[in-house]
Amino acid sequence: MMKIGFIGLGNLGKAMAKRLISEGVELIVWNRTIDKAKELGCLIANTPSELISQVDMLILNLKDSIAVKDVLINQNGLIYGNCENKIVIDTTTNHFEEVLEFYSLLKEKRAYYLESPVLGSVIPASQGLLTVLVSGDKTAFERAKFILEKIGKSIFYLEKEGVATKMKLINNLVLGSFMATLAEAIVFAEESGIDKERAIEILLSGAGNSMVLNVKKQKIIDEDFTPHFTNALIYKDLDYIHDLAKLLKRPLFTGSILKEIYATALLKGVENEDFSSIYKIFKNF
């Protein structure tokens, strides 16, 4: 049986790993926090270099490009293991310039890097319903497709290096915009004397009907903002898309104000809450 490695057991990574295990995939994992790895009940490698030496493919799901580079090149990083002909599937939302370096680092070690950011959060990840955007070598993509299909319902192969990451950032511009607009609308409804649940019901029957509101409505109703996707992460992605706007020499209108809205969440000390807690920021203005 093909062995698959997994690095990065945060909220999304753990959901993806559990999904793969439930699909009969033999996982070997590494995580900085060992207790998170122990919860999965699978084999645990001592270092990233040891892990890649033991597996055929390896999946990364990390916080940002800094974390990915650290796993790649720091002491006992992936590039110090047996990388030849291995495939690294990176589901992290990276900076579009940093991924180009990751391609080069692994190519030097005769390995393949597949830039594979995912659309969706914890619940679709646990059900294998993510959308996966993939750039990189086509042969490597075909080899890895069977594992991507266990976590993703829709897979889009975009081939050219850096394009999948750019599309993920564009998606998150829309995601953050929807969430902020919906949150502000619900607060306006409450201030106008309309019950919150009733307002959400009406929005779902009208212009507010969206995957975002369907997924986040209960969090807003209960004001339970345990994280699936944090304010810190959406802020990071909006920061990256500002760099994309500079590269393209285009103004970024909604993205600019949106970044400052989520900066308020960081200022209020709720960066590790679910990004739907932007509702609470609007409500407490």
From TrEMBL:
GO molecular function: NAD binding; NADP binding; oxidoreductase activity
Active site per UniProt: 168
Keywords: NAD, Oxidoreductase
Gene3D superfamilies in the cross-refs: N-(1-d-carboxylethyl)-l-norvaline Dehydrogenase, domain 2 (1.10.1040.10), NAD(P)-binding Rossmann-like Domain (3.40.50.720)
3-hydroxyisobutyrate dehydrogenase-like NAD-binding domain ranges (all copies): 162-281
Transmembrane segments: none
Pfam family, one: NAD_binding_11
Domain 6-phosphogluconate dehydrogenase NADP-binding span(s) in chain numbering: 3-157
Protein origin, superkingdom: Bacteria
Matching InterPro entries: 6-PGluconate_DH-like_C_sf, 6PGD_dom2, 6PGDH_NADP-bd, HIBADH-like_NADP-bd, HIBADH-related, HIBADH-related_NP60_sf, NAD(P)-bd_dom_sf
SUPFAM superfamilies: 6-phosphogluconate dehydrogenase C-terminal domain-like (SSF48179), NAD(P)-binding Rossmann-fold domains (SSF51735)
Name this protein carries in UniProt: 3-hydroxyisobutyrate dehydrogenase
Origin species: Thermodesulfovibrio yellowstonii (strain ATCC 51303 / DSM 11347 / YP87)
Lineage: Bacteria, Pseudomonadati, Nitrospirota, Thermodesulfovibrionia, Thermodesulfovibrionales
